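A further point concerns the way the authors explain their paired sequence and structure data. The central task, working out the structure tokens from the amino acid sequence alone, is never made concrete. I therefore recommend that a typical entry be quoted early in the introduction. An entry of this sort, consisting of the sequence and the corresponding backbone structure tokens, reads as follows:
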Amino acid sequence: MLDALRKGAGTWVAKIFLVLLVLSFAAWGIADVFRGFQTTTAAKVGNAEVSLIDFERSYRQELDRIGRQIGRPLSTTEGAQFGIPQQVLGRLIADAAMNDEAKAMNIGLSKEELAKAIQANPAFQRGGKYDRNLLLELLRSNGIREEQFVTDQQLTFQRMQIAEGISGGMSAPKTMLEAVNAYQNESRSARYLVLTPQSVGVLADPDEAALTAFYDERKSDFRAPELRALTVLELTPETMAKAETITDEAARAEYERTINRYRTEERRRVRQIPFTDPAEAETAAADLAAGKTFADLMAARNLKETDVDLGLLARDKFLDPAIAEAAFSAAQGIVPQPVKGRFSTVILDVAEISPAATRPFEDVRDEIKASLALAAAEEDVMDLHDEIEDARAGGTTLAEIGTRFNLTPTTIAAVDSTGKDASGNALTLPGTGDLLAEAFASDVGVENDVLASGQRGYLWFEVASVTPARDRDLSEVRPAVVDAWLAAEREKKLVDLSLATAERLRKGETLDAVAAELGLEIKTDPALKRNLASADLPATAASEAFAGPVGTVVETAGTGGNRVVLVVDSIATPAFFIEAEEIKPIDEQITRQLQDSLLNQLVSQVEKDKGVEINQAGIAQVIGTSQTQ
């Protein structure tokens, strides 16, 4: 809602001021700390001040906004780690500098014009008309006094006058638009060869000396990871629940208590054709009575089934109560008389009726028993959790706890920090995703905190043993090392082949002759675009085709580990019409960037001329980074 309040200016200029981070205000140390100013002031620029109250309010609003985006609240100290205070203070200082400049230039706005501007803001309108109560509701919900809001709006419109005078009439030069259009929309036709790892043929295995040298350079790639043996005890309602202990009588009683859960209301599939003129609806009803079908009416109005089908709905799901009443009062088929709905008069067709029904007890008995058993188990889990925690506090091991409470601990013989066993196979681990992180932060003999398992379960673990990471002997990993050597050698030979092929083309050999000798297919892309990937070419490779004129040969990495050798055949320069629809977004983007740059220079110069001072101690206190002595 605060964003709605900020729309008082309503133009691109106001938006620029709202997002302006003031590049000149890049770090705290742009001025001395305050000497002799009030402790309630956060910053001062010229004769204008930014109060600590305004800074704190703006900072917390920004934290709230970012918190909503990331799905969790941000503390003031967390915000400081991301540099948010600098951004907020930079914006407030920029506003203060321009407020001071507006005052020095004797810029003002009459009360009448200010009132008109506020009332014209769509955020404060209902039904297209200004609603003072809506404005007051927004202000009240955000803790802003009306007088303060009006003052802020007055200052905003005064700053706007300066901004519009500086860059309001600026637009992107035609030459720049033409250059950007040519760069973005130029296309090139190219033919190319795709060299795959198979292009280098079959490689022989390395001799012992080559393999040993290769392994010695890459021992860390084949290192055995640290392994940990764990004992895990998981306690969840799902594993504790015993549906067989629930009697039919108890399940029947629960069924009767929750019978509405198993009832399905009557639903109807309704089709409707709306008419803005009730007389036309009457004529259509007469046509139906005379023998026309609903499909005939649809065809006459060029309507598809998706245009008229409201879906299979219960009575309370219809948006228009009048249509719901008519649809549920009629038999299946076309409703004879037009129905006056909330928005228009309609002809209705009740296409399908799904009667109300109740699932019998026999169909849901097992489901109810499982639900009752789970609910009972949840209480048992809570009780047992407390008993297990008491036992652990007394030094009882998980194995002993399992025996005492008739639970079965799980033994994990060896697992690495990524969840794989000693052979590199992925393990299915019990409980929560936190188990590995906690287990590798613990050690043998350490009593660990209980972890959550699911929504209502618990998981305890002990580290039984630790096997340190170590360098493997070549004999342990020979097959993997041979595979790695072959892959590296094949990649090297592929690059050599690709480079040699490109060099042959640059020296004058034709692509057809080279392709025939290598047994490769010549592929064609008639419209390569910058930074646009294709099946064979990643975006970076496609862009390399724009590095030179027609005839340019490009050797580059392709997709899927392949190499590509490409020849540019032709260049298509796009036509430029400044009135064209595709030029508008380019024009808007460049114009906005130019205006942003000019306004930023203005704000930077004003701040430099007037001088900026910052109460670093006060700001540190607000964001929680001050150090007590």
Q: What stands out?
A: DSSP finds 24 helices and 20 strands in the chain. Residues 116 and 558 are 60 Å apart (CA to CA). Confidence is low (pLDDT under 50) at residues 1-36. The radius of gyration is 37 Å.
